[in-house]
Specification:
Elements: E1 2-11, H1 15-25, E2 29-34, E3 59-67, H2 72-82, E4 90-96, H3 100-106, E5 111-112, E6 117-120, E7 132-135, H4 148-160, E8 167-170, H5 176-183, E9 189-192, H6 196-208, E10 214-216, E11 226-232, H7 235-247, E12 249-261, H8 265-272, E13 276-278, E14 282-284, E15 287-294
Parallel strand pairs: 6-7, 8-9, 8-11, 9-10, 11-12
Antiparallel strand pairs: 1-3, 1-4, 2-3, 5-6, 12-15, 13-15, 14-15
Helix pairs in contact: 1-2, 4-5
Length: 296
């Protein structure tokens, strides 16, 4: 079995509507991406949790999949007519049937965090069986270790966890930071996320890694202080959550923050300096990790 893929050029004003209409007229799927991805003109699009992204890329590509016997020209023309635009430029290619599971898995290799800490998908053999290996597969929840923000937090945990510390992972995503803390020797560990799917993923991933952590939604977080609070989310929620996160850190305890763009580091550090003696920011591929020690 094979499919036909139409790669259609569209601007930001019409891309989303055109993708929706393509689905209405018979496309099997329609995804939008930056036409300039991988070039110097690539346009990053960032959205904070709970807030919609209010723009698409100025030059977008719609990749739309059709049945092998579909009249792609007729369907693209029909979609353009419904959107009241001229028929956009596009190309059509044939997509052969493949083992999509195997193809997807081949894109994810073990990730080295440090000499002793690796993240290894379940279908891979660990490169270093003697190391601490986190078994984690890509899924619906954020956090596989490949993103700089996750790496920055994992590296901090690897360097700073001595054993027995209580840990709160606020915005736990896949649970990777809570799981890593436990495998590095932390004590009682709690993970919180606003997304019920993330909580479910965290529970499943903890079981996969034979560790026990307590995961839940924000309304399950009771008053209490921790030796370490880590929050790998984004700048806007970190701005709003400063007082809450600080209230959960023991005097002399540590806070670790990421999901912050490099240009946001100074502002966020100044906000948290109200409660913490802040360390120098650490940067990785345009992202930042902040950390600090809670003052009395």
């Amino acid at each position: 079995m094979a499919w036909l893929q139409a790669t259609i050029h569209a601007d930001s004003a019409v891309a989303e509507k055109l993708a929706d209409v393509l689905m209405d007229v018979g496309a099997l799927s329609a995804t939008i991406e930056d036409a300039l991805a991988g070039t110097d003109d690539e346009q990053p699009i960032f959205g904070e949790p709970g807030e919609p992204v209010d723009q698409l890329w100025s030059h977008s590509l719609i990749n739309s999949l059709f049945a092998e016997d579909a009249d792609v020209a007729l369907l693209v023309t029909a979609a353009a007519n419904q959107c009241h635009i001229d028929v956009p430029s596009y190309t059509v290619s044939r997509v052969e049937e493949q083992d999509w599971v195997r193809l997807t898995q081949s894109q994810f290799d073990p990730i080295r965090i440090s000499d002793r800490l690796w993240i290894t998908p379940t279908w891979h053999t660990s490169p270093d069986p003697a190391a601490i290996n986190l078994q984690l597969d890509p899924g619906l929840a954020f956090g596989t270790g490949s993103h700089p923000t996750t790496r920055l937090c994992l590296q901090w945990l690897d360097q700073q966890i001595q054993g027995g510390e209580t840990v709160l992972d606020y915005g736990c995503g896949s649970g990777i930071l809570a799981i890593a803390a436990l495998k590095l020797g932390a004590g009682a560990t709690r993970g919180i996320d606003i997304d019920a799917q993330a909580v479910r993923s965290s529970i499943d991933n903890a079981q996969q890694n034979s560790v026990s952590a307590d995961f839940g939604l924000p309304d399950t977080l009771l008053p209490g202080e921790y030796d370490v609070v880590v929050a790998n989310i984004l700048a806007n929620p970190l701005r709003m959550l400063g007082e809450l996160l600080a209230s959960h850190v023991k005097t002399g305890g540590k806070i670790v923050l990421s999901g912050i763009l490099a240009e946001q580091a100074e502002e966020l550090s100044a906000i948290y300096a109200k409660w913490f003696d802040m360390d120098a920011a650490v940067f990785d591929e345009g992202w930042t990790r902040l950390s600090g020690t809670k003052r009395p």
